[in-house]
Amino acid sequence: GTRHQRPRTSGIGSLHANLRGAYTMGLAGGKSLRVLVADDNPINLKIMRSALKELGHTGVTVDDGVKALRCLDQLEFDLVLLDVMMPELDGIQTLAAIRQGEAGGKRRLPVIIVSANDLPGDRQRFIGKGADGYVPKPVDVAALQSEIARVITGA
Asked: What's the pTM?
C-alpha cells in the first residue's frame, strides 16, 4: 500500500548510493586513487593518510595551498582533498587556482573540501566556488568513502 512508498523510496535511494559506492570502491581496489591532501594540521594529515590507506588509496600530503599547487604541477592525481583554513593560500584560493588552470582545457580534477566549520550551507557554498564535494571534520571514514565515490562517479 501507500504507507510503504516513502520508506521504500528513501531505501532505494540509499541502496543505489551504496551500490554505486561499492562499485567505485571495487574499481579502486584494482586501481587505487592517487589523492593529494592539503591541510596545515599534522594530526589531520595523519588521520587522512590513515583513512585513505584504509580505503585502498595512496597519496601525497602537504601543509599549505602553495605546496598543493606545486605538487599538482609535477604529479598526476585522481582527487584533491583541501582543508579550508591554511596559511599562505587557503583551500578556497587553492581551489580557484586549480579551476583557473583547467580553463586552458586541462582535465577537471575532482576536489573535495574538508572543513571543521560545518555550518549550514557550507556544502552549497563550496560547490558554488568550484568544489565537487564536501566532508566535515572530524572526518568519518565512511562519509569520506561515500563522498569520494560520489565525486569520482560524477553522481
From this structure: 0.80
Sign of CA dihedral 115, 120, 123, 127: negative
Strands 58-62 and 34-38: parallel
As to burial, measured by CB atoms within 10 angstroms (0-12 exposed, 13-18 middle, 19+ buried), residue 99 is middle
7 vs 117: CA distance, rounded Å: 31
Phi and psi based region of residue 11 (left: phi greater than 0; alpha: psi -120 to 50; beta: remaining): alpha
Which of 80, 41, 78, 93 is CA-nearest to residue 63? 41
73-112 per-position pLDDT tens digit: 999 999 999 999 999 999 999 999 999 999 888 889 999 9
